[in-house]
């Protein structure tokens, strides 16, 4: 098993064990020289093996291995838009999905910077309009969105998060899920998110995310 394969298998099991995705949902990819390695379609992230990974080109062509995730086109769009992205994760994390279904979120930036870690790891979070899973009509919008935001929500579906590597993408995904949970907990409470200046300062000094209000 390659190191990348081992990392994908371990992360899939860890995400599943922590209920960050469930059933046969979610997909994970890592950029390699020929394109990216991605989890197969229809499997559970709980029980992957490295032999299950498919190799897909940046144009979305299936190069080898089993049938890739139906969202491989989304992963490809993110890699094309973000040359610095080394990994992409999509999950059905419960609280993030709840936000993606919420009628009151701003589609340009779905969550406020409630905490410093959210401002540092996630930042601006666009919400893309609903498409059925695997609908490649979403590809151009996903690519445009990924050019200015490393994390976004698919409406009534779930998060897609890129990182410099698998650990960075997982950090941002977990921070997004926890902030979605906080936001839902605080829905009926008066809250005081970070100011734009505080969020921008954190981003500038420690950020791996997309500055709120920025277009990169
Ligand atoms: O929601 C879906 O069907 C997909 O986005 C998904 O999460 C799992 O699909 P595969 O990666 O094709 O198994
Ligand atoms: Zn999905």
List the helices and strands and how they pair.
Layout: H1 3-17, E1 27-32, E2 35-38, E3 54-56, E4 62-64, H2 72-81, E5 87-90, H3 94-101, H4 116-121, E6 127-128, H5 139-146, E7 151-154, E8 158-163, H6 166-185, H7 196-206
Helix pairs in contact: 2-5, 3-6
The chain binds ligand LB5GJZVW and zinc ion.
How would you describe this structure in keywords?
eight-stranded mixed sheet; 15% strand; globular; binds ligand LB5GJZVW; binds zinc ion; zinc; 3-oxo-tetronate 4-phosphate decarboxylase
Describe what you observe in this structure.
The protein has about 220 residues and is an alpha+beta fold. It has a single domain (about 5-205), classed as L-fuculose-1-phosphate Aldolase (3-Layer(aba) Sandwich). It is about 35% helix and about 15% strand. It is built from 7 helices and 8 strands; from the N terminus they run H-E-E-E-E-H-E-H-H-E-H-E-E-H-H. It has helices at about 5-15, 70-80, 95-100, 115-120, 140-145, 165-185, 195-205; strands at about 25-30, 35-40, 55, 60-65, 85-90, 125-130, 150-155, 160-165. An 8-stranded mixed β-sheet has the order 4-3-2-1-5-8-7-6, sandwiched between helices. The longest helix has 20 residues, at about 165-185. The N and C termini lie far apart (about 35 Å). About 45% of the residues are buried. Bound molecules: ligand LB5GJZVW and zinc ion. The ligand O=C(O)[C@@H](O)C(=O)COP(=O)(O)O binds near residues 24, 25, 27, 41 and 42.
Summarize the structure.
The chain has helices at 3-17, 72-81, 94-101, 116-121, 139-146, 166-185, 196-206; strands at 27-32, 35-38, 54-56, 62-64, 87-90, 127-128, 151-154, 158-163. With 216 residues, it is of the alpha+beta class. The protein has one domain (3-206): L-fuculose-1-phosphate Aldolase.
